[in-house]
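It would be a great kindness if you could assist me with a short task in structural biology. I am sending you one protein, given as its amino acid sequence and as whole-number tokens for its backbone shapes. I would ask you to consider whether the tokens describe a fold that such a sequence might reasonably adopt. The full record is reproduced below for your convenience.
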Amino acid sequence: MRGKRRVIALLMLLGLLLPGLLAGCTGQGSENKVLRVGTNPEFPPFEYIDNEGNVAGFDADLIEAIAENQGYTIAWSSMEFKSLIGALESGGVDVVIAGMTITEARRQSVDFTDAYYDASQM
């Protein structure tokens, strides 16, 4: 159940941050625009490393569809879960997608998206 809350939190983060992050990413016009995405690909089926060594899963499909719709390509950064918020705060990544649970402490650092997966934690 802990994982489900992480997913909800991540979704909320993504929904709130993505429009602003996409607006601030490098690249304009016909240049190749790159969205730097941080994840911890150890939470299947939401994010994991597939047999070809690529980030895969529901979250990967979602962010790739959003990036494609907005004219961006993705540069994945896989890291420890505990490093994701710091990477976002320091500008090492533009967005994080990793099934993150919303906590008051995290709300002080980052904005969360609306949930696309609803779960409860016991």
The beta strands are 33-39, 42-43, 47-49, 55-56, 72-78, 95-96. The chain has a mean pLDDT of 83.
